[in-house]
Amino acid sequence: MLTLPLQVIDSFLLQYNIGQVFLLLLVVGLLATLPMKSKTIVGAHIVLIGLLLVLTPLSLMDNDFIYRAIGLALVFIGPMVMVVGR
């Protein structure tokens, strides 16, 4: 039933670490929110992905500090996008 799609997703995700998956979610989410033309929603999405990158343990991201730095940058960029949208 649902085992085939889950196996496909699992085999895809095993090739990447969680930081790369979160960055993919950022890009896909931004593409999904752009048609709404709401900078508040785009800013909230950026902040959410930034928080996910900051709060995820480094052991899940192969001890790459770069993803945590990108997360911190996104946490600061997101509110700026929200303010510009008003």
Automatic annotation (TrEMBL):
Pfam families: DUF8006. It comes from the Archaea. Signal peptide: none annotated. Residues 4-85 form the DUF8006 domain. The chain crosses the membrane at residues 12-34, 41-60, 66-85. Keywords: Membrane, Transmembrane, Transmembrane helix. This is DUF8006 domain-containing protein. It comes from Halomarina halobia.
